[in-house]
Amino acid sequence: MTQPTDVRGEHLRTALSLAASGVPVLPLRAGKVPFGNCRRCADNTCGGRPNMKAPGPCACPGPCHGWAAATTDPKVIGCGPWRRAWLRASAVAYHPGGAGLTVVDLDNADAIAWAREHLPATQTVPTTRGEHWLYLGRMQSANGVRPGVDIKSTMSYARWLGFGAGAMANLPDTVRALAVSKPAPPRPTSRALTASAPDRAGECRHRTPAFLERGIAMAEQRITEATSGVHNAVYRTFLAVLSTHGRCGCLTDGHVARLFTAAQAKGESARHCTEAWTNARTTLGV
Q1: Are 143 and 153 in contact (CB under 8 A)?
Q2: For residue 187, is pLDDT > 90?
């Protein structure tokens, strides 16, 4: 459904206000997902900005590449391609890490109860199903660190839902530790998984940087080029990556973040990415 003109204008005004306070913003389309890449960036022909290793602005003329599009530049936010995106936007999002923040996304009542018991009180923003707890400080983003708990900071985006209530606390080590030791990780870590015998004299060929990099790049391309059945394409790609690289301990959270970013740029939600990754691991037993 098309947004009323006054609502669309409010999204743009909110974005400009946040940008003026140093919060990088981007528009979200229906389904709370970023806009797809522009023509010049289709199929990552621009160089694949989703592969960035660190936060930074996207140099494209429109709001491309998900979180990497977030900006504080009012000239960019109000320019032609962005203005057209705002006219279709359903919500405003921001890049927490770019603003020096971390969002602990609590998706249900059980997750909120856990946070109240284990995390220091901080600024709290109600969401559709739960709460966002905002902390001052940035860290690596991670999904599914606990049941119903995601961490959104660098290389991620969160929907802007207002200022909430309470004073913002500094990012505690308790939250940082969640991304390091995940009780039920939906992603592989750098530790060795149950492995088959290496190919050559005890060496794992996947540890060759070029081999692993080529595999991850091909997987990103496969996701990016999907024109229909994106959810199935993402699952099949995750399955292929894990079947090749999932048993030797080569994959890191950085590799998986690249795959998740590519999937989210195609419209997949963080939840769908996590579910597809978990299902692929379960299917392969890794």
Answers
A1: no
A2: no
